[in-house]
Amino acid sequence: MYKVLIVEDDPMVAMINSHYVEQNKDFSVLSICKNGQEALEFLQKEDADLIVLDVFMPLMDGVETLKQIRQKKIQAEVVMVTAANDTATLEETMNLGVLDYLIKPFTLERFQISLEKFIERTTTLKQNTTLDQSCIDSLFSKSVKSHREDLPKGIQKHTLDSLMQYFNENPGWQAVDAIAEKLGISIVTVRHYVSYMVQEKIIREEINYKTGGRPSMVYKKN
User: Fold this and answer.
1) pLDDT tens for residues 184-217?
2) How far apart are CA 83 and CA 128, in angstroms?
3) Does residue 109 sit within a domain?
């Protein structure tokens, strides 16, 4: 399981980010720090795989914290979070090698895309002792492909593969909530992916009237 450090001075936002992390079964919250100085002190004692780092914080802001993380050669990926979408901050943090950049307020679905990017990059590096051009392109998000074609925005290969495997192993009709519980991802994310899979004719959908309550959609592999 990947360990996530949340660096955020707003307690409410920190709580939301923590909740978002916990929606993915592959991640756990290591700790929450209120500012960059506290985060750097924590990282001297504990290792994090991923850092969700706010830009505007007291004592030490996110940009300076990121610079210190790089200077100290702390081995962790970083997702920057900010309420401001100014191009100067974006350019500076991109030059410092951030994995992703989230503008507040962001959705659970968009947050999960950041986590999926982390998994894909980490998996690619672990599985390949030598990298060919396609691996390099994948790492830099220029050419992330499914088995059929380029994936559209918002569809990540790792999550799509998990859904594909689920339907391969469960040939009967499947409900969204059951899929979400089994895979450890949000219902919103599952709905997004099954909609794409129906569109691509990977699976088909049908209305289930036998729920005892409101009819719901169920899905089955073609």
Assistant:
1) 888 889 999 999 899 888 999 998 877 666 778 8
2) 37
3) yes
| Total domain count, the chain | 2
pTM of the complete model beyond 0.90? no
Shared-domain flag, residues 82 and 162: no
Region of poorest pLDDT, from 26-35, 55-64, 206-215 = 206-215
CA distances from 148 to 176, 206, 219 (A): 24, 25, 21
Residue 54's CATH number = 3.40.50.2300
Query: 184: domain range?
Result: 157-221
In sequence order, what are the residues at sequence separation of 6 or more whose Cβ sits closer than 8 angstroms to the Cβ of residue 98? 66, 78, 79, 80
Strand partners, 52: 6, 79
Q: Which two tokens stand for residue 181?
A: 């519980």
The overall average pLDDT reported for the chain is 85
